[in-house]
UniProtKB/TrEMBL annotation:
GO molecular function (one): 2',3'-cyclic-nucleotide 2'-phosphodiesterase activity
Its EC number(s): 3.6.1.13, 3.6.1.16, 3.6.1.53
UniProt subunit comment: Monomer.
Protein name: Manganese-dependent ADP-ribose/CDP-alcohol diphosphatase
Biased composition regions of type Basic and acidic residues, renumbered to the chain: 174-187
Annotated gene: ADPRM
Keywords: Hydrolase, Metal-binding, Zinc
Region called Disordered, residue ranges: 169-197
Domain of life per record: Eukaryota
Length: 329
């Protein structure tokens, strides 16, 4: 048997779908910011619908699907088409009989302010957790939370744009502080340019984790350590340089890694943002999996997967550009 098939002989604890960077727009094909990479704006919705058909037919049924951010493209904002584009993506995902957990990426924030996202179908933060567990999420408008779909298994969704100049009122303290941090490390006139930077992740299309969010994350992982849980963390932005190019990392990715590495429970970090995808097993035994993006996937292919979680491993069954992978822990 091929490795993934052999690894999947027993019933999984839980299975879930994964997809990243759909970036749908009702537009002709375009290019990336640098004019080098083709983007298939209309076809991205067709590929998502095909993924939904596969997920909906999975047996045993999936527990949930993770959408890792950038579900519609920033071009929608320039056309006044953001609301309609978002509704088409959400309508496709509503065909699933299971919950969808949404990370927020830079393209969501090109189209909407954070308040609008919080009142939209992209707000997947659940109701507050029972008093016995860690807080459901950080205080404020941070879109980070955790949930447990099976005993001794916890998922944590992080908000990589908690610190960001995108999606916030320019007069707000958070925007001013984020802009200060960005300009300290990026003197370029174009803040989306990493040219000449020692830390090339400090560009406007990335963001970072506030100390409040990191402290909350640390508290959740402490709870999981104490209760012998395995944790899968996830967010739009990659946090390990060996699973991404340096330009696509979260601003303070090292701070997030430091929290993870101070605990025993985290087995995997899932991310999007880098459309080519990436993978590494880090020095602490944590798998970092960056999913290839649908937006740059040709219409005859696809880019999504299903992950099956077992006591000692996660098995990724990829479709199209996403490869099969077995991640032992």
């Amino acid at each position: 048997l091929p490795a993934p098939a052999a690894a999947m002989e027993a019933a999984p604890l839980v299975s879930f779908g994964v997809v990243a960077d759909i970036q749908y727009a009702d537009e002709e094909d375009g290019c990336d910011f640098w004019g080098r990479r083709r983007r298939y704006y209309r076809h991205s919705l067709r590929l998502l619908r095909a993924a939904v058909e596969v997920w909906a037919a999975e047996q045993p049924p999936l527990a949930f699907v993770v959408q890792l951010g950038d579900c519609i493209d920033g071009v929608n904002a320039r056309r006044g088409a953001a609301e309609g584009a978002l509704e088409r993506v959400l309508a496709a995902l509503r065909r699933l009989p299971v919950p969808v957990h949404h990370a927020w990426g830079n393209h969501e924030l090109y189209n909407f302010c954070r308040d609008r996202l919080a009142s939209s179908g992209l707000n997947s933060r659940p109701a507050p957790a029972p008093a016995a567990g860690p807080p459901a999420g950080p205080p404020g408008d941070c879109h980070a939370y955790h949930f447990s779909p099976a005993p001794r298994l916890r998922f944590v969704l992080l908000d990589g744009y908690d610190l960001s100049v995108l999606g916030r009122d320019p007069a707000s303290p958070s925007h001013r502080e984020s802009l200060r941090r960005l300009r300290e490390r990026n003197p370029n006139e174009n803040l989306n340019s990493p040219a000449g930077l020692k830390e090339p992740q400090f560009v406007e299309f990335n963001g970072g984790f506030s100390q409040t969010q990191l402290d909350w994350f640390d508290e959740v992982l402490k709870f999981s350590d104490e209760n012998q849980e395995k944790v899968v963390a996830m967010g739009h932005l990659p946090i390990h340089p060996d699973a991404s190019d340096k330009v696509c990392l979260a601003w303070n990715y090292e701070d997030a890694l430091s929290v993870i590495h101070s605990h025993q429970c985290v087995v995997c970090f899932l991310a999007g943002h880098l459309h080519d995808g990436g993978y590494c097993l880090d020095s602490h035994g944590v798998h970092h999996l960056t999913l290839e993006g649908i937006i740059e996937t040709p219409p005859e292919s696809n880019a999504f997967g299903t992950i099956y979680v077992y006591d000692d491993k996660m098995v990724l069954k990829g479709r199209g550009r996403i490869s099969d992978r077995v991640m032992y822990f």
